[in-house]
Every structure is written in C-alpha cells, then in structure tokens.
Amino acid sequence: MAENICILGGGVIGLAVAYELTNRGFTVKILEKSKCGGQASGAAAGMLAPFSEIGEDPDDFFRLCLESLRLYPDWIKKIKEDSALEFEYTNSGSLYAVYHEADILALETRKNWQNRWGANAELLIGDELKNVEPELSDEIIAALYYPQEGHVYAPGYVAALEAACRKKGVEIYEDLGHVELIETQPDYNVLQSSNGQTFTEKQLIICSGAWAKELEDVLSIKLPIYPIRGQICAYQSANQSISHIVYSSQGYIVPKENGTLVNGASEDIAGFQTTVTEKGIQRLTNWNHKMFPFLKKETPFHHWAGLRPATQDGYPFIGLLPNQKIIFATGHYRNGILLSPVTAKIIADLIEDKQPVVSIESFQPLRFT
C-alpha cells in the first residue's frame, strides 16, 4: 500500500477523492483554508446533466461527464450508508427547451448523436411537451427530454461526504487560512498555513479550485484557472407541479423536494468576491418568467453566489506531474458536483498505478506549460 496522502482543498472534489481513497485502504488528510464545501461546492444547484450541458459533440469532457453520471447511483448509495445521512438525490429527468422553429432541427441533430451514447432522448413538441410539464410557457415550442438526468441537493451531498470521510478516519484540518506550498521535492512536499502549521507530505493532491493558480511559481508550470462568480436565486413557490429540470440557452430551473425552485445562474468575473449583486439576480428574473409565467409575480426568497474554477480551455486539470509526488484534480468549473465520483476514482487509480476508467489525456495539468 502507498504512503499516506494529503489533499489540498476540502470542496466536493477533495472530499470525494478522500472518500474513495479511504475506501481503498489509504490514510488521508485534508487541508482546507476555511470550511469544507464552503465555496463552489455547497453553493451549486446540483445538476447531474451531461446531455443537457454538452450539446456539441462527444469530446473527452463529455465522456468524462457521462461516465460520472453512470457512477452516481452506486456512489450515492454508499455515501448514504457510510455517513448515515439522507439527502435529496433524484433522476427527475430534464428538458432542454427552445422557443423558435429554427431550433428544432438542431435538437434533432443533438438527439441523434446523444442517443448513440445512451441518452434515450425524446423530442417533445406541442401537446406532448405540455403533458410532461404543464406549467411551461406557451412560448416554448419544443424540448429534448432526457430521462436519465437528475440532481442532488448539493449542501446535503457535501455534508454527507464530509461525514463519511470523518467516520472513515480522514483527518480534516479546517480554518487554516492561506496554505502555501513552500517546498517541493521528488520525495516530499512542504506546506505551511497562515496560522503557522507546517505539513510535510510525500503524496499531495491539489483540489483547491481556482486557488490552484497560486502554485504556478513554485511548480514552474502554467495554470490558467480563474474564479467565475455564479449567482443563483430560489423561489418558495406555491406551485408544486414542476417535476423536471428545465434548461434553456439562458439558464435553468431545478425543482427541489423541499418545494423550492432553484434558478441559475448568472456568471461574471469578480475575482474571489462572493457577494450577490442586484444586476446578477436581475439577469435571472428578467427571463425566468418566459419559462414559467407564474414566476413573473413571484419574488426570490433567497439568493447566493459561489466561485467556479474555470480553466482557459474549459477542461479540468486531472493528472500527475512527472517526477513529483503531486496530482491535480481541480478546475471543474460548474461541473464539480457531477464530476466528483469519476474524478475520485481516476485519482485513486493513478495512485494505485492503474489505468483510469476514462482517458485523461485532454486534462493533463502540463498542457499549457
């Protein structure tokens, strides 16, 4: 068995990697600057929707997302058992909606290639669509129905992951402040937190989201990864009939089992600021009633923002640095929740010198260096 393992970052990816590694018998610690799941992870809407999110072609990123979707049922079952916590997980299905006749041909093309990858998508038009989701606006003329897609309640999922990790003996160091990699050698890495703690670790896994860019100088590599602020609002609606995730080109609405509708997301560049802005929420309220007309009279009861780690090419960094005991698993942008199971299994496979479940050639951390 390999040496003890240290994970930098306690978001959903760091927790998922720690959980998978402990299940394979490794001893793991997590170093977290604030609280586990306190950035993008806990603020996510929790969609598990690779077909809705990726409509262009089956590239490496699509295949990564699809594999993770397929892993989810068994993954969630085990987390619930190990954490003894319940949280919402549903394969509600989703609708990708369009407003113009000219878009129907594009939906047909999308359906054809995605069904070759097991989407089982159906094109719903007119009354067929109204029968599935009656409250949809009459402006929406068609939608692709994806029966395999769904969502989780992100805060509950992250809390259960953390609880499962703790029960399995993962050491979690929180509120460390800034954690700096001050020395790296082929056989060890030294990290120091702003509160004065020092950690000397042989195997290091970087799961620190957009903060991973801080490692460029010490590792002499280029890591074009940046925080993108995503703003979301929620409605405590009296209308309980919505049952599917509904996407359009402008955003999405997700019905949660607690009766709320989550509406997201507007995005902007604001550094590491997580403040909510009136302009950001207005971007959502300006269009959501065109999807569900009753929202025109509703006011969001809650709004929040999270930082999404976006890379220059939109692909995450997943892979080993040569000649160093450092592995990257970061830059998942808005798909961290979806990609947590597959990323965890890939990282564990790399540590065990096994072939990953999917190709990670496109995600190598040195691709910009």
Q: Which CATH C-level class of the largest domain is it?
A: Alpha Beta
Euclidean distance between termini CA atoms: 32 Å
Proportion of strand residues: 25-35%
- Alpha-carbon Rg, integer: 21 Å
Compact summary:
The chain has 369 residues and is an alpha+beta fold. The chain is 28% helix and 27% strand. The longest helix is centred in the first third of the chain and has 24 residues, at 60-83.
Can you walk me through this structure?
This protein is α+β, with helices and mostly antiparallel strands. The chain has 3 domains: 5-81 and 154-223 and 313-363, FAD/NAD(P)-binding domain, CATH 3.50.50; 94-147, no CATH class; 225-311, D-Amino Acid Oxidase, subunit A, domain 2 (D-Amino Acid Oxidase, Chain A, domain 2), CATH 3.30.9. It contains 10 helices and 20 strands. Strand 19 and strand 20 (326-330) form a beta hairpin. Helix 1 (12-23) runs parallel beside helix 7 and helix 1 (12-23) runs parallel beside helix 10 (336-351). The longest helix is centred in the first third of the chain and has 24 residues, at 60-83. The model has no long low-confidence stretch (mean pLDDT 95).
